[in-house]
Amino acid sequence: MLDVGCGPGRHARALAERGCEVVGVDISLAFLRAAGEGRWVRADARRLPFSPRGFDVAISLCQGGFGLLGGRDDAQVLTQMAECVRDGGRLVVSAFSSYFAVRHLEEGDTFDAATGVNHERADVRDPTGSAETFDLWTTCFTPRELSLMAAAAGLNVESIWSVTPGDYAKRPPDLDHPEFLLVAAV
Ligand SMILES: C[S@@+](CC[C@H](N)C(=O)[O-])C[C@H]1O[C@@H](n2cnc3c(N)ncnc32)[C@H](O)[C@@H]1O
Question: pTM above the 0.90 mark?
């Protein structure tokens, strides 16, 4: 499996514990160092350094690059991931929900209706626990947009579920969960 934007390896390690062979990719060396033992590669999700069709599955969960890059670059991440997966394999990506973002816009957040980008100020802590506040821009999607992007990347959409991080379940798309989970066949 390929975990794109793996961060400190949260999902990659959980999958490895269940017997999957996982390679994690992230742009942040600090996160990869924090991930500890495992197979980690520093790379940009827009230019994945792998031979085509080498993985059974590619995942990108909780905005592992996808959703952080803006319109055309997000599409490129999907295309790059699709190229890494063998025929008949799967691609699984989670994405912020535009419906939820607008419906539950938090105080201080702004949502750009033209681009679907949500802006927030977020506290990020270093390993010592000291926090700094950063601007955070996240592109949000509707299921229809995800379907169209997946089709443009040559993927066959199998399902789109409404999910909450840490609570993945097969719920049809709704307005009440913060993310959508796209499952597509290559
Ligand atoms: C919100 S974290 C999610 C991490 C992990 N998937 C998880 O669920 O714990 C987003 C991750 O995407 C990575 N990232 C952002 N832009 C990226 C890019 N262009 N290429 C690869 N990784 C990227 C960040 O460094 C960060 O580790």
Answer: yes
